[in-house]
Amino acid sequence: MPGVVGLVVNPASGKDIRRLVASASVFDNREKLSIVRRAVLGAMAAGIDRFVYMPDCHGIVSAAVEDLVEDAVFERLPSPVTDSALDTTRAADRMRESGVGCVITLGGDGTNRAFAMGWRDPPLVAISTGTNNVFPEMVEGTIAGAAAGLVASGAVRSGEASRQVKTVHVSVDGEKDDLALIDAVLLDEAFVGARAIWSPVRLKTLVLARAEPAVVGMSAIGGLLHPLPDSVDGGLVVEAGPGGHVVTAPIAPGLYTEVPVRTFRQVGLGETVGVCGPGVLALDGERERRLKPGQSAGLTVRRDGPLVVDVQLVLKLAAARGLFRTAWSEGTNGN
Amino acid sequence: MTDIAADVLLDIHNRMVRIRTFEEEAGKLMESGKIPGALHLYVGEEAVAAGVMVHLRDSDQITSTHRGHGHLVAKGGDLQKMYAELFGRATGYCKGKGGSMHISDLDLGMLGANGIVGAGPPIAIGAAFSNKYRGTDDVTCCFFGDGASNEGTFHEAANMAALYKLPVIFVCENNGFGEFTRQERHQAIHDIADRAAGYGMPGIVVDGMDALAVYESAGEAIARARRGDGPTFLEYKTYRYFDHVGVRGMGVIYREDSEVLEWRQRDPIALMEARLAEQGLLSADGAAQVHEAALAEVREAIAFAEASPFPEPSALMEDIYTTAAGAGGAA
What we know:
Chain A is of the alpha/beta class. Chain A has nine helices and 17 strands. Helix content of chain B is 44%, strand content 9%. Chain B has helices at residues 6-31, 46-53, 69-75, 79-86, 120-134, 152-163, 196-199, 211-227, 257-264, 268-278, 284-307, 324-328, and strands at 61-63, 140-145, 168-174, 177-178, 181-182, 203-207, 232-237. Chain B is globular.
């Protein structure tokens, strides 16, 4: 069975205020279009001939494949386009019924968070085109597409080359629940505003599903104190403020800054950390929602996130199985 | 991330309400035939003008567009002189001889609305060059739309601004339409800020319906320019509720009413009022008072304008760049 690959491309990733307040790169949509095209060609080389994609107001996917429609089927999901993160969440939900065996996302942590809020089960190949990217990989589109194709077709089983990552569940008193894939942070802030975080001054409580020393963003603060990779169960809670360490951490691209940390501790999976408003909750590096004075929220690290495909491992398995080569011709040998 | 004092928040709200009120009343007067000529109204886009202008001082300049009333109201323009100009009266900003699309106020650094799409960018970089040459830390904000970003004038100005590291901020008000043409039918790209990198300046995309997102992003860009770090391209995704001209304008069908209603769900003034209420800074009664005060001020300006005289025919050749004889071509 050839399998179906899903495509979710966030047209808004890589364009926020961190191009001004830090040194983030601009990720223009022509480049995203090129990556999509390469990923599709990679998946087709792996035998895929059907793709399902999220519509976006930029028409990135449809433009990327306009001359490939004779060779494969490209099905546009009938989900509304609002030019917001809601598009990704809705498309993820609709993709659930479309027979997709693996999904390729283009975006940053926020894009993958939005996808996981709509559908958390499918194997994901997450290509980085965002700003703070802990979740997605910097990986060549061609290879990412091939890996997604191999997983979608079953040539490499998802269970062989993917792992289920951790999440931070957010339950807010009296309001709908939320989710983060890397970090949930309470800020002493009144407004969502331009969304990004580029100053340590307002940090209060950080709950990190991953504390990685070699990434950019909130995760790095914990990672430079007490590394806790995704492979290890549990989370790290960091209370910002004077009286303890001062960590020099890259909280945005090119922006190493001093972050005062009062305490930090590891928590187990399922252990809820309570925070209380007023403040703003930032999820995966973006200010998302306001907590009213006295409104409480619970932040819980769990291992119930998406299945993330190990692209390198998929291709190694493919090589070992001879999936990209013919059988030996008679009279030749492997030397 | 940016400290926003309560008085600044209230100031942004007040500027937005004054723009909305000015424009809604102007729209009624145009459609009833009391104001001659065409007005291009700014209703729906108030967060951009207010969120940018609250950072500026009188010595900072702006260049405006054919949809320019909101810019001058937000910059502190005199509503009576503005309305007098719309009515074509001698007490107006251009002594009644310019109309809506030529209002300027050099004392406020407002270098002019402009009837020519894309005319502002070259003027803006000229002003910015002057600021740099004179050694001031004044900046120039150049307002223009998605349609203007296709004009050669914009591209030449963007190139020079980046080349000479000029203190200019390109404020692109992308309302999704060039007159009656949807953006996807006049540009192959959706984020105009993508063009900034091609000229060697940073460009970002911001929600133009959220006054605080505008405030934060504009503040950073203006600070960059004042520091001498050069130009920035800010693209604000916004929407005009009214037609290209007037309120229901020329009756051209080019969008569904449902689309307008959808954008109105994220009305910038309503969003701001909800936030101010959450913060305990402005009650519903307080907000109503701001609207009432703005309406009273606008009605006073309209009364002033209607009571003002038309320019005398003898003033026809005044305030021009040549002599009467030269203008007539006679020796």
